[in-house]
Amino acid sequence: NSFYDGRVSEAVVSTQSTGVEILMNPLEKKGCEVMIASHNEFSIQYVVERMRQANISPSEGGIYFGQLLGMCDQVTYLLGAGGYNSYKYVPYGPIEAVLPYLSRRAYENKGMLKGSKKEIELLKGELKRRRYGLLPN
User: Fold this and answer.
1) Span 98-126, average pLDDT
2) Exposed/middle/buried for 134, CB within 10 Å: 0-12, 13-18, 19+?
3) I want to staple 69 with a disulfide (CB 3.0 to 4.6 A). Which of 40, 54, 88, 126 is the partner?
4) CA of residue 16 relative to chain centroid, distance
5) Distance between start and end Cα atoms, the chain
């Protein structure tokens, strides 16, 4: 049984949650800024909820969200639409340096890659909305 078995390990979520809790006090006092670089929707939802509980502004609270371009795009777009500071990052460099990194990210997130059908449906809906000038729900 591999550590990356297509599901995010509870240990990873627990570690990320603990890290967020350690940073909450300085964040509430505006003593630091942090980038939550995660493709895990549960971890991101946890941070958003903690921000709400601590009355930390989505756009001015010093918390930023980042995901690799092409992975978990629907989450990044929803964060941006909600006023959160959300970013996509693109690794660059020689192919022999970048390919192993991208391979690890794809392997770690293979469970999410199976969910690409959800992303495709969301993209189709967005294309229809833009084509016909419909307002988002």
Assistant:
1) 71
2) exposed
3) 88
4) 12
5) 42
The Cα 123–Cα 129 span in angstroms is: 10
Whose tokens are 């909600």? That residue is 82
> Is residue 54 pLDDT above 50, yes or no?
yes
Question: How does DSSP classify residue 76?
Answer: H
Give the SS3 label for residue 67: strand
Question: SS3 for 63?
Answer: strand
8 Å CB contact between 47 and 63: yes
User: 116 pLDDT band (50/70/90 cuts)?
Assistant: low
Q: What is the pTM of this model?
A: 0.67
pLDDT(9) > 80: no
Q: CA–CA separation, 102 vs 99, rounded Å?
A: 5
- Residue with the bigger pLDDT between 134 and 13: it is 134
User: Containing H/E element for 25?
Assistant: helix 10-28
Residues 38 and 67 sit within 8 Å (Cβ to Cβ): yes
3-class secondary-structure state, position 87: strand
Query: In this structure, are residues 72 and 112 in contact, taking their beta carbons and an 8 Å threshold?
Result: yes
